[in-house]
Automatic annotation (TrEMBL):
The UniProt record lists the keyword Cell cycle: no
Keyword Phosphoprotein: no
Name of the molecule in the record: Transcriptional regulator
First and last residue of the signal peptide: none
Keyword entries, A-Z: DNA-binding, Transcription, Transcription regulation
Family annotation (Pfam families): HTH_20
Organism: Amnibacterium setariae
Length: 100
């Protein structure tokens, strides 16, 4: 299955990950993706009151920061959190962001 290019997490800096998650929408997206299930890019699934182009920007920002990977299957794009890779590179980071 083809996918958008994602950075090697060994080359990702913590500051880039934190910068990507500084936006409240992207932080909420992380919390949604933490369920371990790949999600579609459909705006209806996410429930945010923003334009489709804004959501695309958030998806791209998270992918370029190494947080997610996006796979393409025909016209369907699915996004998943790179949880195990993130936990290995930045132990405890995701878990700490999921607690209220």
């Amino acid at each position: 299955m083809p996918e958008y290019p994602t950075p090697d997490l060994a080359e990702v800096e913590l500051v880039d990950v934190l910068r990507a998650l500084a936006d409240p929408i992207r932080l909420q997206m992380l919390r949604v993706l933490a369920d371990g299930v790949p999600h579609s890019k459909s705006p209806a699934e996410w429930g945010f009151d923003v334009q489709k182009s804004t959501m695309s920007h958030h998806f791209r920002t998270m992918r370029e920061a190494g947080l997610t990977e996006t796979r393409i299957d025909g016209r369907t794009h699915t996004i998943r959190l790179r949880r195990s890779e993130l936990d290995e590179r930045f132990p405890g980071l995701v878990a700490s962001l999921l607690t209220d």
